[in-house]
Write a structure and sequence with these properties.
By secondary structure, this protein is of the alpha+beta class. The chain is built from two helices and four strands, in the order E-H-E-E-E-H. The longest helix has 22 residues. It is globular.
Length: 106
């Protein structure tokens, strides 16, 4: 499935709600990638950073799952997948703005 996540450096401690909210927003897909690996059943975890986050590339990361966007599904074409990814990004951006100033507890 696809989730809205906060991405922090892997060594980020302590993990407080204020530290989490300062993390980089991203979308995380966890699944078997049915569009591209027909019949393969190995699990993949991919993260797309919504804004910034260059400092996280090549480092261990900690993901904090905030909200599920949708279940994994098969797409008819790469174009259909691109359209859905664009919708997922808009949803993640909407939640990022909505929760930007909200109080959050872990």
């Amino acid at each position: 499935g696809v989730f809205w996540v906060k991405v922090l450096p892997g060594d980020a401690l302590p993990l407080t709600s204020s530290a989490v909210m300062k993390g980089t927003d991203g979308l995380c897909n966890i699944g078997v990638r049915p569009r591209f690996s027909r019949g393969e059943r190995s699990l993949h975890c991919e993260v797309f950073l919504l804004r910034g986050g260059r400092h996280l590339y090549g480092r261990k990361m900690r993901l904090v799952f905030l909200r599920r966007i949708r279940a994994e599904r098969r797409f008819r074409s790469p174009e259909a997948l691109r359209r859905q990814i664009a919708r997922d990004v808009r949803t993640g951006e909407k939640w990022r703005l909505l929760y930007k100033k909200a109080h959050f507890s872990l």
